[in-house]
Amino acid sequence: MILFLNFLLISVVTLSFTRTPRLSSPFGRHFRIENPPNRFKNSFIDVSKFNFSGECADVFSHPPNSDRDYIVGSYDFRSSCVPSMMWDSLTLARYSMRNAHIVLLLFSFPPQKCKHDLTRLAKLNIELQKVEKSSEEDAVIARYTYYDKFIDENYKNISRIVFIDPRDVAFFNDFFATFSENDIGWLIECFGPKAPEDCFGPYSFKLHAEWLEQFYSKEVEDDFVRRKLPAVNGGFGYGGVEKMKKVLQIYHENADKTIKLWGYDQALLNVLYYNGSFDEVGMKGVICEQKLCYIGRNSMEVKDKVIYYNNTQCSPVAMHKFNVKSTQWKLW
Predict the structure, then answer these.
(1) What CA–CA distance (Å, rounded) separates 51 from 61?
(2) What strands, in cross-sheet order, belong to the sheet with 318-322?
(3) Phi/psi of residue 269, nearest 5 degrees
(4) Helix or strand or coil: residue 274?
(5) pTM of the entire structure?
(6) Among 32, 154, 288, 325, which has the highest number of CB atoms less than 10 A from its own CB?
(7) How high is the pLDDT of residue 20?
(8) 3-class DSSP state of 331
(9) Any idea what DSSP says for residue 110?
(10) Within the chain, which residues score under 50 in pLDDT?
(11) Which residue ranges make up each domain of the chain?
């Protein structure tokens, strides 16, 4: 059952949102932001100064975000409030893609001590859907089941969709304008443009290797290490709805439903990606680009509150995690 906080939206949406009801929305009324607030800025970055002009605009080769585009993430609050970096992530997403739906699939709501969090989420026009999982199942495993269900229930309303970890993804501009309904992609854990040396994988990050051995075998782990295969990240995927539906179908057909532990989703994604299971849908693994990058340690630099990509004058469109030496602002 969808819990979309209509009572909060009616009472607290006080930003420059134009109240335009979309009765076809599965979440009730959708309030489009026609005149968004000033672009995101803090003491360390000012997105209004980022450079997306000239050749730096070449990355935007597809239609801009619309109300048929969805950003979907999941979260389990347990006993915590919305973390500060998650507010940065959600605010950046809303300011950059004002017409898209942003949906959080919540395994639990913020506790009473965080009573203002729901109001603040409503102001950002974040749509909330309560979902359930068993106590022994990790939320990162359960999310893939609900990603699939979400597409099934809303298929006719969706053109393009992005799955994210809402805690630490930064959208600095319209990510939907970088891909079409015919595309499907998943982020590779590369913090610079050179693979495999600028990447995390079983050969360079012990936990990735342990997951492969734990959930598959020592032989599978050794093969990944020998080939120096960069890791596919479980927290950022994008594509047209039909291709994404097929990816999730392949994922679930190959998943061991008895395994509910953290890390299994990423181990499974990596095995399927590198054994060619996703080739039929044309999945692209994104190694650090202007369009999308992981962490950015060897590819991003901040000057005068502007992030620049890989010694160019261009700013990045999206990041999953951000941690570079030239600024104290982090999503990590």
Answers:
(1) 16
(2) 169-171, 318-322, 292-295
(3) -55, -45
(4) helix
(5) 0.88
(6) 288
(7) 29
(8) strand
(9) P
(10) 1-38
(11) 6-22+31-36+45-322
Q: What pLDDT is stored for residue 161 in this prediction?
A: 99
Question: How many angstroms separate the CA atoms of 61 and 31, rounded?
Answer: 27
d(CA 222, CA 9): 52
Q: How far apart are CA 95 and CA 90, in angstroms?
A: 9
Q: In this structure, what is the dihedral angle of CA atoms 291, 297, 302, 305, given to the nearest 10 degrees?
A: 80
Q: Which two tokens stand for residue 280?
A: 């039929």
Residue for token digits 């959930």?
215
- Alpha carbons within 13 A on the beta-carbon side of 251: 24
**Separation in Å, CA 292 to CA 187, 289, 309, 319:** 8, 5, 10, 6
Angle at alpha carbon of residue 244, lines to 83 and 40, rounded to 5°: 35
Q: Determine the pLDDT at residue 47.
A: 95
pLDDT at 332: 85
Q: How many CA atoms are closer than 13 Å to the CA of 122, on its beta-carbon side? A: 18
Asked if 65 and 174 count as a contact pair (C-beta separation under 8 A), the reply is yes
Contacts 24+ apart (CB under 8 A), 44-47: 44/302, 44/305, 44/327, 44/328, 44/329, 45/302, 45/305, 45/306, 45/307, 45/327, 45/329, 46/305, 46/306, 47/92, 47/95, 47/96, 47/172
Distance, CA of 186 to CA of 326 (rounded, Å): 27
What is the pLDDT, as a whole number, of residue 30? 33
The whole-number pLDDT of residue 115 equals 84
Token code pair at residue 329: 């602002």
Backbone angles phi, psi at 189, to 5 degrees: -80, 70
Looking at residue 39, its pLDDT comes to 81
Q: Output the CATH code of domain 6-22+31-36+45-322.
A: 3.90.550.10
First to last CA, the chain: 32
What are the φ and ψ backbone dihedral angles of 147, each rounded to 5 degrees? -60, -45
Strands annotated E in 99-231: 101-108, 126-130, 160-164, 169-171, 184-188
